[in-house]
C-alpha cells in the first residue's frame, strides 16, 4: 500500500471516528451531537433512563405484609433491637 493510500485511509477514518463516541451506558458508537444533547447516552439508553422498567412486581397484599412482619419480628433478639427502636 502506498503512503498516499495510508494517509487517505487515515484521514477518512479520523473524519468518521471524530464524529462519534461511545455511549457511556452501552458503549454503542453514537454521534457526538446526540451524546452531547442526551447526557452522554444514545437514544435507546436515554429512553430507558427516562422510563425505566419497574423493578418490583405487583403490590403486596395485606396478608403478605403481615407474614413478612411476623418473620422479621421472629428474627429480632428480644430486648436488644427492641430497646433501640423504642429509644427513637
Core attributes:
single chain, 88 residues, mainly alpha, two-stranded antiparallel sheet, 5 helices
Structural commentary:
There is one protein chain. It contains five helices and two strands; from the N terminus they run αββαααα. The chain has 88 residues and is mainly alpha-helical. It has one domain. The protein has a two-stranded antiparallel sheet with strand order 1-2. A hairpin with a 6-residue loop joins strand 1 and strand 2. The longest helix has 16 residues. The model has no long low-confidence stretch (mean pLDDT 79).
The counted number of beta strands is: 2
Query: Which stretches of 5+ consecutive residues score pLDDT under 50?
Result: none
- What strand line-up does the widest sheet have? 1-2
Overall geometry comes to rod-shaped
Radius of gyration: 28 Å
What is the makeup of the main sheet? 2 strands, antiparallel
Q: Determine the N-to-C terminus distance.
A: 78 Å
What portion of the residues fall into strands of 2 or more residues?
Answer: 5-15%
Helical fraction: 55-70%
Amino acid at each position: 500500500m502506498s503512503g498516499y493510500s495510508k494517509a487517505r485511509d487515515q484521514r477518512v477514518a479520523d473524519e468518521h471516528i471524530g464524529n462519534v463516541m461511545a455511549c457511556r451506558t452501552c458503549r454503542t458508537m453514537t454521534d457526538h451531537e446526540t451524546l452531547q444533547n442526551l447526557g452522554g447516552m444514545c437514544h435507546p439508553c436515554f429512553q430507558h433512563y427516562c422510563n425505566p422498567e419497574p423493578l418490583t412486581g405487583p403490590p403486596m397484599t395485606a396478608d403478605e405484609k403481615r407474614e413478612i412482619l411476623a418473620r422479621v419480628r421472629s428474627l429480632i433478639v428480644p430486648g436488644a433491637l427492641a430497646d433501640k427502636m423504642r429509644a427513637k
